[in-house]
Write a structure and sequence with these properties.
Helix content of chain A: 25-40%
Largest sheet of chain A: 7 strands, mixed
Structural class of chain A: alpha+beta
CATH topology of the largest domain in chain A: Ribosomal Protein S5, domain 2
Largest interface: A-B, 39 and 39 residues
Oligomer: homodimer
Number of strands of chain A: 12
CATH class of the largest domain in chain A: Alpha Beta
């Protein structure tokens, strides 16, 4: 195989109470990478579309070419590769944009090399991509982007990743308000210490959320989608967050939270129509405040990246 | 019905990483209460056995008669009751001794009154008993003592209690070393604030433990039985804790931890013989240090209190 096209999905990290340990993959949006092998020994970035000129064109700095180089170095391979990146999702949105690009790049180069690594084996390399992109090798975006579905990162050291079940017919209604919060900034404002009493609430909710997903108990999932630690701080950076939550919950959302470090927010819904209606109302609410937004309605993506 | 005998079980609160949110019931040991209705309007404590004279004989101060009075007051009932308490487990052991007594008393009086309350409805009353006994209305002993099995307390406000599944053939090998640590003291030495990074590890493990119980994945249950927050502090009060852990793990335990606030420790095992062997080795280890101990080997108690 000389060429491949890979789509890798956007992701919702944390899923409310599961800070740094839970994430889920969306079917849409995501990023597309087209990759060609060639006879050179260079990794070149031939094309970037959809980034409005904002991503680095230097292959050493662009996340996709950087992870491709890292992959080849780790496997001791020398290979000429040319890369095209089609950004099909916003970045700085809290939807795992850099993860989607890195995962698409890794899955593409792995496929072109004859798939020597499983998707789970690609995870540490994708986490290295996250370190390049935002200085922190967290896995709550790259793990679901690579593996699809709903993923628990039980432990980072050693890395222990578990795919969780979830009810069918869940829809994520995702709204990206056009305000920018870089992930590194969003992490900086978090406290380094928290009260034990808040931590106990959080692990009660994380346990409840996992139990709710296993038992397909929509009500328990909703009750457990409470974040007493990270959300109150990050919500300050998201205009109208609590009004949006109230609107979503009044209109039938199971739960509502911040996607990753924001500013995107998501309403978990048990049917598509509810999601559509909530997105309309949320975007109208922000429009009144003069804030534009993107709307995405997606089931949970079971398959993960798609190779074409 | 004029008389009833109720056995209520000892419990392992926390189950390693689930501080204040997880607990499980044992089949043995536990406490027995015998209760008789009479024509007086008094609640009397006619007999206490097995306490070596250490429990209060004043019905206003004894936990069993106190919760019986609380129950009758809450339901607006006036009723003469005489109570006999047969302590069949140590107290100050970290095995939920006061919970077992309170639950036995509550189930007994409820049964004699015609069972107007369900076991779940008795829970807030049992928690009030915990407040009387140790100043803190926690539920991680009383909930499993009342409901049996493995219980998640997702939230205390509002109270939200969820019974979790678990693999068959799990055995708890429990060792109670003869050193005393009152619960109120054990809670005092805990920190009020913890690093977010430790909290993330903890809720990753709690989520992994719940997932392990749902999937009957013994290995995942074992990997998740890590407590980075409470155990390192409480272990200091338990002689030989880390030697005991090593011995238990080397001899086939799935996981090892402190029961409640200690000093009892438990090894979770996937068969009875392993549990027996581990208990022998642990008690021998302590004996060398001049410390006596009680050994209990029990499956998880699915049924909860037993009415005879």
């Amino acid at each position: 195989m000389k060429s491949v096209e890979v789509f890798a999905p956007a992701t919702i990290a944390n899923v409310s109470c599961g800070y740094d340990v839970l994430g889920l993959a969306l079917e849409t949006p995501g990023d597309k990478v087209v990759m060609h092998l060639n006879e050179s020994k260079e990794i070149t970035l031939d094309r970037i579309e959809g980034d409005e000129g904002r991503l680095p064109k230097d292959p050493a700095k662009n996340i996709v070419t950087a992870v491709v180089k890292y992959y080849l170095d780790q496997l001791g391979l020398q290979q000429g590769v040319s890369v095209e990146l089609y950004k099909q999702m916003p970045f700085g949105s809290g939807l795992g944009s850099s993860s989607a690009s890195a995962v698409a790049g890794l899955v593409a180069i792995n496929e072109l090399m004859g798939a020597p690594l499983s998707r789970k084996e690609l995870l540490p390399l994708a986490m290295e991509g996250e370190r390049l992109a935002c200085g922190n090798a967290h896995a709550d975006n790259v793990a679901p982007a690579l593996l699809g579905g709903l993923v628990l990162i039980r432990s980072y050291d050693p890395l222990d990743v578990i795919s969780l079940p979830y009810p069918e017919n869940l829809f994520c209604a995702v709204l990206y308000p056009h305000v920018e919060i870089p992930t590194s900034e969003a992490r900086k404002i978090l406290k380094t210490h928290i009260p034990v009493s808040d931590a106990v609430k959080q692990w009660g909710n994380v346990a409840g959320l996992v139990a709710g997903f296993f038992t397909q108990n929509i009500d328990l999932i909703g009750r457990s989608m409470e974040d007493h630690i990270i959300e109150p701080i990050r919500a300050m950076l998201i205009p109208g967050f609590y009004e949006m939550r109230q609107l979503a919950m009044e209109n039938g959302a199971i739960g509502f939270g911040i996607s990753g470090s924001g500013p995107s927010v998501f309403a978990l819904c048990d049917n598509e129509a509810t999601g559509t209606e909530i997105l309309e109302k949320l975007s109208d609410l922000l429009k009144k405040e003069g804030i534009g937004s993107n709307k995405y309605l997606s089931p949970i993506n079971q398959a993960g990246p798609i190779i074409r």
